[in-house]
Amino acid sequence: MPVLSIVIPAYNNTHYLPECIRSITAQEVTDLEIIVVDDASTDATYATVQELAQADSRIMALRHTSNQGTLAARTTGVAASTGDYVMLVDQDDELAPGALQQLLATAQAHPADIYHFGVRVEAANPEARQAAGGMTGFLTPTPRELEGADILRTQFAEIGGFDWHVHHKMFQGDTIRRAYAAAERTRLLLSDDLYMSFIVDSMAARYYAIPSSPWYIYHLGRGDTFGSALTIEGLDVLAARDAKALALVRAYAASSQAPDRSDWKTCIDNVRDRLVEHAMNEWKDNLPAALQSQGLDAVVRSWQPDAVCGELYRYIRDAAYAYLQAGDKADNKPSARTVAAKQEALRYLTMASQVERVFDPAQSANRRYHAMRDIAYSHLRDAGLIAATESAAAPEQQHGLRTLFRRRHHNG
User: Fold this and answer.
1) CATH number, position 136
2) 74 plus 28 within the same structural domain
3) Which residues have C-beta within 8 Å of that of residue 374, sequence separation ≥ 6?
4) How far is CA 17 from CA 24, 37, 52, 63, 93, in A?
């Protein structure tokens, strides 16, 4: 039995996959198995992996007969693993030289179920270069140890949480195999990592975040459409898959495989908030402004209106605060940035007020919605964007949203 199993889901990637595998086989640690699961590629990916396996007996080539998605490919690979520890590496990425030796040395000194290490972001295009700094910060863990129930409670918290990617983590083998065995074999989109992190966290006894550990080379923008504009159809799929992930999380928490704990509702609410936050950030950052009003249709098909409103109020909060802090807002010719902050705050306020016509804010049990709404209105009043006594919704503008918000919504 090897000390370490590394699972790589692969699909239509003859270009970067050999580079990924070579970054692992070149490591000083040799007591390992590399399990590559080809998810029914239509190119020569499987043949490429077979060739590499013939040259190195540590490589195992597995293949799905039909395309099932990343979650299923990882599930197949983890089930086939036999290592004391298991890592999941994406097909476009690499491990830095010496990464495995340092990880296993850390495991000897700090027994844990989850080892969280850092990344080095390599940008593949100009858009990725602009995002690389923020991505590095997001993926670099805060050095700390967590135990028991605190792991799940912390990961998805709004403040002090940590990213839910399953790459750049090493797991205790039996824990991760048990987690994937408990998961539904289904297709998600970007939220399969969140779903699996939720399950692993609930089963883990100890989490250890390693300081100064940029050992995972994350190729941002390689092999994907990073930087391209989002479409309404793409947002619709993304929001629906995120909502599906929440349903799966709820189903797991209610299952016999989940441990008993008194804070399931809090943990699930945190996951809901992170998923809605993700869908709405995609809406705000990647959907062209001219399509945003229509794009809300895609989000509210999958999420309840108070959850969507909570994110709109988050944007209002930030824009109103930026305007409040602007030193030139009283000038005859304020800067373009100051003008944009004012316009953005009022535009999102109009959208939020329209959404609020289909539910009673006083009856909403969504704490995030109420918290964001309260602070947003406080900033709006302080900035002089609304009357000092105003707390009602902003005046109506035409956004074509009346009918869609009368639809029946689900996923809270």
Assistant:
1) 3.90.550.10
2) yes
3) none
4) 11, 12, 10, 15, 8
Is residue 397 within 8 Å of 350, Cβ to Cβ? yes
- Beta-carbon contacts of 395 under 8 Å, excluding residues fewer than 6 positions away, are 350, 353
Domain count, the chain: 2
Are the C-beta atoms of 106 and 115 separated by less than 8 Å? yes
Interatomic CA distance for residues 198 and 196, integer angstroms:
5
Query: Tokens 């060739």 label which residue?
Result: 51
- As a whole number of angstroms, the distance between CA 51 and CA 37 comes to 14
List, in order, residues 6 or more apart from 258 with CB less than 8 Å away: 182, 202, 252, 264
**Last residue of some domain: 175, 197, 220?**
220
Token pair listed for 101: 């030796």
Q: Is 118 in contact with 212 (CB distance < 8 Å)?
A: yes
C-alpha 166/C-alpha 263 separation (Å) is 23
Contact between residue 216 and residue 118 where contact means Cβ atoms under 8 Å apart: yes
Q: Are strands 169-172 and 94-95 parallel, antiparallel or unpaired?
A: unpaired
377 Cβ contact partners less than 8 Å away, ≥ 6 residues apart: 386, 390, 391
- Asked if 292 and 196 sit in the same domain, the reply is no
Domain co-membership, 85 together with 190: yes
265 and 202 within one domain: no
* Continuous segment of H or E residues that includes residue 63: strand 59-63
Residues 45 and 143 in one domain: yes
Place of tokens 């940008």: 123
Query: How far, in Å, CA of 303 to CA of 295, rounded?
Result: 13
**What residue spans of 301-399 are helical by DSSP H?**
305-325, 336-355, 367-382
Identify the residue whose tokens are 């100051």. 338
Res 234: pLDDT: 93
Query: Can you give the residue range of the structural domain that contains 204?
Result: 4-220
Same domain, 189 and 291: no
Give 10-residue mean pLDDT values along the chain (412 residues).
97 95 97 98 97 97 96 97 98 97 98 97 87 90 97 96 96 98 90 96 98 96 68 94 96 97 96 96 93 92 95 98 95 95 97 91 94 97 88 39 34 44
What's the rounded Cα separation, in Å, for the pair 379 and 345? 10
Same domain, 202 and 263: no
